[in-house]
Structures are given as C-alpha cells and as structure tokens.
Amino acid sequence: MAVLVNTIFEDALDQLLDVAKRFLEAIEAAGIPCRVVGGLAVFLHVEEIDPLAARLTRDVDVAVYRLDLDRIRAAVQPYGFRHRDVRGIDMFLETGSIKARSAVHLIFLDEKVREGDLAEVPSSEAVRSTKGFLIAPVQDMVKMKLTSFRMKDKVHIQDMDSVGLITPEIEASLSPALRVRLSEVRATE
C-alpha cells in the first residue's frame, strides 16, 4: 500500500510541476517578471531542507504585475493555457480542462488579494529553487501566509517554521499585526 501511495503522490507532484514549468517557461521567455507563490512555493522551500516535511498542494499560484496580464495571455496560449476570470479571479486552465482548482491562479504583486488584507503581495526579488522555478523568497511567503491566515496558510507557516525557515530576521521584519498572527500559529503547534 505504501508503494501505491508514493506513486499517487509522485504522479500528482509530477503533474503539478509540469504545469508550473510550462506556464513559467512561457512567461519567462516573454520577459515577464513572475514567481511561484502559495502552497507550491512553500513546498519547494520546505523540500529543499526536509523533503519528508513538504506537503503537496493542488494548484499553482503565480504572482505577476497586473499590467502584464495581456502579455501573459498571449505568451501562454501557445503552451496550451487559456485565460478565465472566475468571480474576479484570473486563472489559466489547460486546454480541455474544466477544473478551476487545478488551474494556474494569478496573484498580483503590490496589491492586496482581498480588500481587508493586512498587507499587499510583496514584490521582492524572486529566487530560483533547486528544481529551477522562480519562487517568492521565504520572507515574502511568510508575509503572504500570515496575511491570508486561512487554515491552510497556518499549516504552511507551521511547515516553514518546523524546518527553521522562519528566522529571527524574518520575524523581526514582520509588522506588529503579522507578528501577533505568527505567535498565534506557534501557540497551536
């Protein structure tokens, strides 16, 4: 049974990484600034330190500048992605796919995801993961996860903290409100 579970996990991871790779190749080839964020970015950061502590996510979140949206549409279309706006969320589905949760979701840099968010999506310089993906740095991921603060975001914070990614320097860079949220997450571990 363990072999079957590992195969299912590995297949799902391979599919997710393939979608991310093709989407990002198209954007990078067009010279459009981008970076993976969300659960996949957390996975890639955590996996580099402790592969067994990394959790799989269902979709790909990519942060870009809103002004590049038309260029992104044009760049990814030949790679088999089509744009869709679902209740104000910009996403790209693979041609033939109808599942929005397995899409590439866009997050806009230097903007709040939701109106009441404590902070905007940071636009620090992206870093290259060992798998070759441009990803948001840990500091940005911590800020984004503490800003969203849903259950899965809290779990991602725990994952990053458990492998030592949330350093005292990163903690010191947080706003007072985000430091309170980090303390709340740590109190539930």
Provide key terms for this protein.
single chain, 189 residues, alpha+beta, Beta Polymerase, domain 2, two-stranded antiparallel ribbon, 7 helices, 7 strands, 47% helix, 15% strand, globular
Oligomer: single chain
Outline: globular
Helix content: 40-55%
Q: Biggest sheet: strands side by side, in what order?
A: 1-2-5-4-3
Task: Give the H and E element order.
Answer: HEHEHEEEEEHHHH
How much of the polypeptide forms β-strand, as a percent range?
15-25%
N→C terminal distance: 30 Å
Structural class computed from helices and strand pairing:
alpha+beta
CATH class: Alpha Beta
Low-confidence region ranges: none
Rounded average pLDDT: 91
Largest sheet: 5 strands, mixed
Q: What value does the Rg take, in angstroms?
A: 16 Å
Reported by name, the CATH topology is: Beta Polymerase, domain 2
Task: Tell me the number of strands.
Answer: 7
Compute the number of helices.
7
Query: How many structural units, i.e. domains?
Result: 1
CATH architecture: 2-Layer Sandwich
Structure description:
The protein has 189 residues and is an alpha+beta fold. It has a single domain, classed as Beta Polymerase, domain 2 (2-Layer Sandwich), CATH 3.30.460.40. Helices cover 47% and strands 15% of the residues. The protein has 7 helices and 7 strands, in the order αβαβαβββββαααα. It has helices spanning 2-29, 38-49, 69-76, 138-148, 151-162, 168-173, 176-187, and strands at residues 35-37, 60-64, 81-86, 89-94, 104-108, 127-128, 134-135. The strands form 2 sheets. Strands 1-2-5-4-3 form a 5-stranded mixed beta sheet. It has a two-stranded antiparallel sheet with strand order 6-7. Strand 3 (81-86) and strand 4 form a beta hairpin. Helix 1 (2-29) crosses helix 3, helix 2 (38-49) packs parallel to helix 5 and helix 4 runs antiparallel to helix 5 (151-162). The longest helix has 28 residues, at 2-29. The mean pLDDT is 91.
